[in-house]
């Protein structure tokens, strides 16, 4: 190991351990992470907000109904990333086709639930709580409930889940006992660390801001720690595109590689409610998605962590088969779900039935398998 690398590793470890009593609870496990063999599995969730058009994402180009319902929005065959003789990925998702070839990517087609609801809020609440009763939609999410059980079995001071982004924390992460932290970006840690103990109106339940009150070290030392923890893991990582989603996944990768024991990470990509002028906006969104997911998986592969990380990508519903008069698509029901990782069961659509094409199949996604993953 090079001398400078050894020195950096020593300084990082010694400074973290010395600061353990003062740093936020969800940061503390990083102080000792490399002192043990950390082989715990991690779930990363990417939410496509707005209702992704599954038909132009996983394209049934060989189905006679496709050109019939998509006279203007039909994607030309020579500009698709073919999966097989019947189905192709949108050309913007070509990087994911490479992962499919490498058996690190899985497509689950036609995923939905019985009696689908086309309201964004209601459908997302069903996805995030895994419950149909509206009275349950303001309670606890499926990931929060899962982390409640994990917390009982494995007591830890770490945050059970982290949202990277400026959006409101998703209900999916809300648990009775489990804890969740929201970060706009890693620099947010440094910004909050610079707050003085006299900062007014600090929420006592905010673990990060509470840190500013009780920290015994000055802000410069805190910022240096955050820079070292977040920056040291990223220097040897794979390159990421210059997009918002890629930046968020890059931050997640940095936290994972730095040894944090958080088990669930969450990121949201918005803009999929494509009622008008869909072709250019949808292509841009999928280009951002494909590039970000591929870079994230490459980063995990290069760090030797791909067998521990599973990435789930979903949207609250799909879009209708028929295009509308505004060159867009309206709210539908079922749609494709992506699962990425070296431990993902390699599957891809072999044929598209009428039910799947029309978005009404309502195939259930096996959440219990994700929970078993932990």
Automatic annotation (TrEMBL):
InterPro entries linked to this entry: DUF1501, TAT_signal
Task: From the UniProt annotation, give the residues forming the signal peptide.
Answer: none
Top-rank taxon:
Bacteria
Q: Which organism is it from?
A: Fuerstiella marisgermanici
Q: What is the protein name for this chain?
A: DUF1501 domain-containing protein
What the entry lists under PROSITE patterns is as follows: TAT
């Amino acid at each position: 190991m090079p001398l400078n690398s050894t020195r950096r590793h020593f300084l990082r470890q010694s400074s973290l351990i010395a600061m353990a009593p003062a740093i936020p609870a969800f940061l503390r496990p990083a102080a000792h992470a490399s002192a043990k063999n950390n082989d715990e599995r991690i779930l990363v969730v990417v939410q496509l907000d707005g209702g992704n058009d599954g038909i132009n994402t996983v394209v049934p180009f060989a189905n006679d109904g496709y050109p019939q319902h998509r006279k203007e929005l039909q994607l030309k065959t020579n500009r698709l990333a073919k999966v097989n003789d019947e189905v192709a990925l949108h050309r913007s998702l070509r990087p994911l086709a490479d992962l499919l070839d490498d058996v690190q990517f899985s497509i689950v087609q036609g995923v939905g639930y019985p009696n689908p609801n086309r309201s964004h809020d209601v459908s997302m609440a069903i996805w995030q709580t895994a419950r149909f009763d509206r009275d349950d939609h303001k309670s606890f999410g499926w990931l929060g409930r899962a982390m409640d059980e994990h917390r009982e079995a494995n007591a830890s001071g770490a945050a059970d889940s982290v949202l990277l982004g400026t959006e409101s924390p998703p209900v999916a992460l809300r648990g009775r006992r489990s804890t969740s932290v929201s970060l706009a970006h890693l620099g947010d840690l440094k910004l909050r660390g610079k707050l003085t103990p006299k900062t007014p109106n600090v929420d006592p339940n905010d673990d990060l801001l509470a840190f500013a009150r009780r920290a015994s070290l000055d802000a410069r030392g805190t910022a240096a720690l955050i820079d070292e923890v977040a920056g040291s893991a990223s220097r040897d990582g794979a390159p990421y595109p210059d997009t918002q989603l890629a930046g968020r996944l890059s931050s997640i990768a940095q936290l994972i590689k730095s040894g944090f024991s958080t088990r669930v990470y969450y990121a949201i990509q918005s803009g999929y409610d494509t009622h008008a002028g869909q072709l250019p906006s949808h292509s841009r969104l999928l280009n951002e998605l494909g590039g970000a997911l591929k870079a994230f998986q490459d980063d995990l592969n290069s760090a030797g962590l791909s067998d521990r990380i599973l990435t789930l990508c979903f949207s609250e519903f799909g879009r209708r088969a028929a295009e509308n008069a505004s060159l867009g698509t309206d709210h539908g029901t079922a749609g494709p779900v992506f699962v990425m990782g070296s431990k993902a069961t390699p599957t891809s659509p072999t044929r598209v039935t009428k039910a799947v094409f029309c978005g009404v199949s309502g195939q259930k996604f096996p959440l219990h398998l994700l929970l078993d993953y932990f």
